[in-house]
Amino acid sequence: MTTTGTTTDDTKNEDAASTAPHYWQGSFISDDEAADRLRDWPAAVEAALAAPLETENVLAACDALAQSLLDPAHPVHVRLVAHLPETEGPAVMAELGHALGRRELTRKLRRELGVAPDRLNRPDPRESVYEAWAPVGLVSHIAPGNSGGVAPLSIVEGLLAGNVNILKTSSADTLFTQHLMAELCALDPGGTLAERVVVLHFPSSRQEWLRLMCAPADAVAVWGGEEAVEGIAPYVPKGCRLVEWGHRISLAYLTADAWSDPTVLEGIADDVCRYEQQACSSPQVVYLDTEDACELFAFAERLSDALASRPPADVAVAEADPARDAEVTTTELVARLEEHLGLTRVFAARDGSWRVMADTRSALTASPLHRSVWVKPLPRERIVATLRPMRRYLQTAAVAGGRTDLAELSRTLFTAGATRVTVIGAMHASYAGEPHDGVYALQRYSRRVAVQADPADFATTACLDDLARPVSLPVPSGPLLGKEDVRERNSWVALADAELYFHSGGSTGEPALSLFSYEDYDTQMRAAARGLLAAGYDPASDRTANLFYCGGMYGGFISFFSVLERLGGVQLPLAAGADHRATARTLIEHGADTLFGMPSYLWQLLHAEGDALRAYGGLRKIFYGGEHFTPEQRRVLREEFGIQVVRSITYGSTDLGPLGYQCVHGEGGVHHLHADLHSLEVVDPAEDRPVPPGATGRLVFSTHARRGQDLARYVIGDLGREVPGRCPCGSLAPRFELLGRVGDVMRVATYFLDRRRFVSLAEERGGHRGEVQILLERTPARERLTVRVERADDTDPARLCEVFLSGYPELRTAVEEELLELAVEAVDGAALERVPSSGKLRAVIDARG
Description:
alpha/beta, Aldehyde Dehydrogenase, Chain A, domain 1, Aldehyde Dehydrogenase, Chain A, domain 2, Rossmann fold, 4 domains, seven-stranded mixed β-sheet, elongated
């Protein structure tokens, strides 16, 4: 997309500002063209809403813009700051750069709308009811004059909620917001943001334009006082949501223990002088918990000393304004006249740059601003009666006092009408997702929608959107990453983003460390929970024994404990243990019918306690992870133990979390991608290039839901292929089939041998139904390959050796050429080497050195 917002030619920018002051869906246009387009605006809105907007694309574009705004040398920063007054530019750029970062916006989204708010998920996994936050549709924003960062942030809030947005800036404003939006849309990886953004530049006297921009609106957001709201109200359609972000009054309240504290005085002076009281959170009145006029006047004098020590106001703010100066002068003169009645006392700068007006009457009085502050008495027992009449205008109350004072006074001030309580000196500070004027902005721009579905038809549908449209995430870029690359990147992760530490199972080497924020962990566990529903887990009736391994920072047991917690399923958190008899006794005693665990451990448990568990006859489902059950093992589970469902619990890694899930139609290694979290590529086994559709290659995942980490294009170490076509379950989430670990293919005696061939030959031709492990060693004469098979009553190592040689030509050739020695050993299942932390079978042990 080419717009004047991304050119580096200042002359072109100036020309655009004079001839094309409006930004309309990706380009700058003139007044005449804007008038033409406004007449067709309803149809344009409908067309824009028809194209889905992925929240991830909004976050990615905002984060890229934020990084450029915080870098004064970045071309985008240079272009945009030129549209701001010199005295305001650095502050506005810093404010926007901080507010638009992924961390802040993600936190805001989660706090205000929850996890994956735009997707129709089950709020209660035990019910076939789906809810989501949907956009209201079109939000018309009326920005205040000289808005700085307010106008663009209002549009971003509308985009985060999924809306089409049209914004009016004042004719006295620069084109900063227009150019900022152009830069944002140019950074959109999905190319859909521009269709949802229009920024117009015209005076409020142009009433026809106001009518046209508001006529199709579903919500109108007005920034300003009562006069601004009244001016827009006639153009708001019936039934349209009017969102008022009006002027508010803020105050400070000090207890007796606090008003003599010098740091409190300094904090109030800072709050008054910062923004010259132009912010709604600026204190206009300081209340003291007293009725003593002497204490009141003494405090006012001390506060005047603190204001006198502050630097003068910015030149731009202090410029002459007759109306403003008249209001300030009149307020001060009236207060001085009332000094003769003993009601007031005024302390003011000789140059008129600040004033403190002490008034013995408690009623809330608005300040004329510009470093003008009232000081009044208000015993705490009269707070509600005094302030409640002004409740519609109250916003921030800063409290200085003890811990109990803060707790008690907060509730009292909320009753009086305040919406925000903070500490002295930090009245202007905010946090991501903070309510504004007592409400969440994103909820004002959203609707809560619900679908009630037939439980019989939708029992395994976790997200209704998966049946309607595929998720579209930004295309990953950059080099392929291996485990060593990720391990190195761990050292770059900020401590604030490293809240949870997990070790991998270490099945392919030393355990690797993976770092997560709790937000990321929660997102991933919710995704895994949705995957389990799709796999046939029923949280309303299944009684589950969690038999994954635990300890040593290995996350298997903990993760599935978290998954079951989010599903609301009944759980026996046993963990894998050596005492199979005690485990079986617990399963039977508490009526467990569903097992979670590693195949190798579950296989051992079922065979060690086979008589008791067969007699119990209550086991119905097994959900496994980390390894696979072979077809022969599945047959045994069905026929000998009555297991009706044997399905993958998830496919994932400790580094990236859950990557895929198996629906009720999934067989073997076929999984659906968690497409709202990850992207998948299948690349050539030797080169960084895509394989033909359906061909086997290395699986490369890029995660889009990790705070403070870039894990794009991670080569996870598995081979697989994309599965074409739509799944019979109806989901549009892509499918892939796992075809083994890269390490399962061994270079032995100049040949490449695949462990999966040994497993399939042992089962299909040799009748083996247990586990298989390969040991590679080097002898003085040649290499040695030992196939270790789990011993059963009918195990015949010699017969299996014949099966391998006859069914695997490359193996037979290597043996005949005396390059390789083949052996088959039958051993007890407990003797097979396993990873201590996870209990996972070590499929291939390469001891050749």
